[in-house]
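Example record

The entry below shows one chain as it appears in the dataset: sequence first, then structure tokens.
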Amino acid sequence: MDNQNNTSPVAQPSPLGVGGEPGLFGLTKRIIPCLDIKDGRTVKGTNFVNLRDAGDPVELGATYAQQGADELVFLDITATVERRKTLSELVKRIARHINIPFTVGGGIKSVEDVSVLLNSGADKISVNTAAFNSPELITGIANAAGSQCVVLAIDTRQEEDGEWYVYLNGGRTKTDKKCFDWAKEAVERGAGEILLTSMNHDGTKAGFALDITRKLSDNLPIPVIASGGGGKMEHFEDVFQQAHADAALAASIFHFKEIDIQDLKHYLKERNIAVRL
């Protein structure tokens, strides 16, 4: 793995680039359905608990690709807790049925894990708890596969003191590290993108966490994906216009057909937000 060069399949960036279209690299705002996977099924909860079944992840992913999603994120939400690897076989199934970039996360602890998943068809890798516990993992993946492959997922909660703190292990473990400080360190170590999930807002459909999203978007040189709280089309408009997010991620509103991706994109386009139709 250490001897990989840019001709290796592991080192290739997503064919569509960061921004979802050739040559744009972030100019268009991206809509990203997220599929949380437990025991091979897509699930969705509220505030990280009370999970319910939402369908087969490969079928859902293929449907979203057809509907115009820019990218997909697949997260094995119990992989870290249960101390097992994200299944590369699932990634191979996804790659066979989906023609847009997709990110895979959950239980990734080494550059070798990353190599297996990228070679199975994933475009990017999301790391969370393992990267926090061993920050050199970020640098290792970036050196081996390129920063564009490294998505740092941050689960954060705003506490009574008003500060946003990092949580680990699927939101089960609080740390003393502040969200922005960890994000800044991750960028310096080679992360190419931040997936920011507000635990306060997750599953509530009451809107994204605009303040912390804006802080990261305005002060970091890499794209920020906002996650947690999307429930109405207006929420996506707000997170792009007010919080300057590069992408917005949601789950249940897409899984349960509360918002259609094409309808959402036309809504955003009408409000002068650049999206890929």
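Notes for this example: Confidence is low (pLDDT under 50) at residues 1-26. The CA atoms of residues 30 and 70 lie 6 Å apart.
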